[in-house]
Amino acid sequence: MQEQTNLALLNKVAVVTGSSRGIGRAIAIRLGQMGAKVVINYCSNEEEANKALEEVKNTAASSVQIIKADVSKPTEAKNLIDTVLSEHQKVDILINNAAIQRATLVHKMKDADWEEVMALNLSSVFYLCRAVLPKMIESRSGEIVNIGSASGFMAHKGAASYVASKYGLIGLTKVLALETADYGIRVNGVAPGITDTDMIKGLTDAAKERLLSGIPMKRMAKAEEIAEMVAFILTSATYSTGNFFHASGGLIM
């Protein structure tokens, strides 16, 4: 566990989507270390969500809870935010992290695969922001961080839906930032490169070596390193909005 350094987010209400595993869990833990009231969101894996809950409980988090919601569905995304607002009367921080990938060449891709990726990776961010912004605008404060990907800045064969969703997320982030700056709300993004999470665990060693060969730093990111970038945006990059911070080991150059 990363050493706690400060309580800069003490009592801030932070919703982290897709936070039962991987980058999302690491972000939830890091925000807990900084004193936030952490809301862990998951869709299907209750066992992993409970593990994340216990890990966040072991930090300096002001509180921690789990809310199950499939944020790719507009009603469930709204219900997630409404539930948090009902309990805490505010959402200070929204981390849009939930995402999936379906690797298929365009001419072989099924409608359902395309729609599933776009719904979770892009539409969910719209649904959640639409639900949370009225309260943030009313309070004239708020932080939104969208977790994108190096794939939002470069193309990959067999990843059309994923790449398109992450490119779209960049545009949505910029529009959200432009529309909300007058209200004291900041909207930024993080573009992780290849990160050591479940998404790449199924790859062969040879496939991993091919991926690493394109990274100047010659290693994958740790999920904790992406979480640290999020913490930096929330607490130190206070004059930034509408930007994507690269965390790709030099992959994006």
Give a brief description:
It is built from eight helices and seven strands.
Overall radius of gyration: 17 Å
**Biggest β-sheet: count, sense, barrel?**
7 strands, parallel
Number of strands: 7
Q: Helix and strand succession?
A: EHEHEHEHEHEHHHE
Number of domains: 1
Helical content stands at 40-55%
Given the structure, what is the number of helices?
Answer: 8
Name the strands of the widest sheet in spatial order.
3-2-1-4-5-6-7
State the end-to-end distance. 31 Å
Low-confidence stretches: none
Portion of residues in beta strands equals 15-25%
CATH homologous superfamily annotation: NAD(P)-binding Rossmann-like Domain
Mean pLDDT over the residues: 94
- Tell me the CATH architecture: 3-Layer(aba) Sandwich
- CATH topology (fold) name: Rossmann fold
Shape: globular
Estimated structural class: alpha/beta
- CATH hierarchy, class: Alpha Beta
What does this structure look like?
The structure is a single chain. This protein is α/β, with parallel strands linked by helices. The chain has one domain: Rossmann fold (3-Layer(aba) Sandwich), CATH 3.40.50. It is 45% helix and 15% strand. It is built from eight helices and seven strands, in the order βαβαβαβαβαβαααβ. It has helices at residues 22-33, 46-57, 74-88, 111-139, 160-180, 198-201, 205-213, 223-235, and strands spanning 13-16, 37-42, 63-68, 93-96, 142-147, 185-192, 244-247. It has a seven-stranded parallel sheet with strand order 3-2-1-4-5-6-7, sandwiched between helices. The chain is globular and about 50 Å long. 47% of the residues are buried.
